[in-house]
């Protein structure tokens, strides 16, 4: 059942960073941004070369990755939604959560948009500028809902809460239930705005015509954690955690686009 479930999920998100699982190998359930930024293609071969442990990857949103951990269908998780991760640990799943890398969230827009983060959200809503939401309970989707709620709490506008999460009402808001790469592609094709992690945004920069908007707000910080789980591959999962916290640091630092790092190793 474990391999079958992971295999079906892998088919749904098939990519160079996602392979058909083998029950004799460790299963990593990870965010799509780890895959779509190209970082896994750097880290996992290095880990295998260093330890001999091979890894099968299921790339899904953070919410789905945590659920795979709950059901015992993954051996180790890489996720980026701190509050959801802490809840997962409090439920008794996993014993530790280690931040090994971070970047920031950014907005990708058809044209440059001036002003503060909330000013830009004001403009989006006022102009009914189409906005592509991942809508998949991923770390990015969770962060997007946090931003909309903070915007509403600041008295800037109203939000609704429905099956797509917390967001302003309007047909211009497009919830697609897909990964980061798909959201960026749709935003580019439809000339919409979307929220992205910096790594994937930089990785896709040369393939789309979108402006990358950065903000210094603390809320835009995006830490990535590894959570090893108990099970038949607990030792391999712990080895991956150790690798990401030590030997992987220079590899993370050197993963760049046009000389710009996509992630920073360690904690923010």
Task: Describe the protein's topology.
Blueprint: H1 2-12, E1 26-30, H2 32-36, H3 40-51, E2 55-59, H4 62-71, E3 76-79, H5 82-90, E4 98-109, H6 117-127, E5 131-133, H7 139-153, E6 160-162, E7 165-167, E8 173-175, H8 180-190, E9 193-197, H9 198-203, E10 211-213, E11 221-228, H10 234-245, H11 249-253, E12 256-257, E13 260-261, E14 264-265
Parallel strand pairs: 1-2, 1-3, 5-8, 5-9
Antiparallel strand pairs: 3-11, 4-9, 4-10, 4-11, 4-14, 6-7, 12-13
- Taking the alpha carbons of the first and last residues, their distance comes to 38 Å
Shape: globular
| Number of strand segments | 14
Low-confidence blocks of residues? 8-20
CATH topology of the largest domain: D-Maltodextrin-Binding Protein, domain 2
Number of DSSP helical runs: 11
Q: Work out the count of structural domains.
A: 2
Q: What is the gyration radius calculated from CA atoms?
A: 18 Å
CATH superfamily of the largest domain: Periplasmic binding protein-like II
Structural class, from helix and strand content?
alpha/beta
Mean pLDDT, as a whole number? Answer: 92
Order of helices and strands: HEHHEHEHEHEHEEEHEHEEHHEEE
CATH architectural group of the largest domain: 3-Layer(aba) Sandwich
The CATH class of the largest domain, by name, is Alpha Beta
């Amino acid at each position: 059942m474990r391999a079958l479930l992971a295999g079906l999920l892998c088919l749904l998100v098939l990519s160079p960073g996602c392979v058909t699982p083998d029950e004799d190998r460790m299963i990593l359930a990870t965010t799509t941004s780890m895959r779509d930024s190209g970082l896994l293609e750097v880290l996992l071969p290095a880990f295998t070369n260093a330890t001999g442990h091979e890894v099968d990857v299921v790339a899904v949103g953070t919410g789905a990755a945590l659920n795979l951990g709950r059901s015992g269908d993954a051996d180790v998780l890489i996720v980026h939604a701190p509050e959801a991760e802490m809840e997962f640990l409090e439920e008794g799943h996993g014993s530790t959560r280690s931040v090994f890398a971070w970047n920031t969230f950014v907005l990708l827009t058809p044209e440059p948009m001036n002003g503060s983060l909330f000013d830009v959200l004001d403009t989006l809503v006022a102009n009914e500028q189409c906005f592509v939401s991942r809508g998949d309970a991923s770390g990015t989707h969770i962060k997007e809902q946090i931003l909309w709620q903070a915007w509403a709490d600041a008295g800037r506008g109203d939000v609704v809460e429905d099956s797509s999460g917390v967001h302003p009402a309007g047909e211009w808001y497009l919830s697609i239930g897909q990964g980061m790469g798909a959201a960026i592609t749709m935003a580019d094709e439809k000339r919409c705005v979307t929220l992205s992690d910096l790594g994937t945004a930089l990785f896709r920069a040369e393939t789309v015509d979108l402006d990358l908007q950065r903000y210094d707000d603390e809320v835009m910080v995006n830490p990535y954690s590894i959570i090893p789980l108990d099970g038949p591959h607990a030792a391999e999962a712990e080895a991956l955690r150790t690798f990401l916290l030590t030997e992987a640091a220079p590899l993370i630092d050197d993963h760049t686009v046009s000389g710009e790092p996509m992630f920073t190793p360690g904690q923010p």
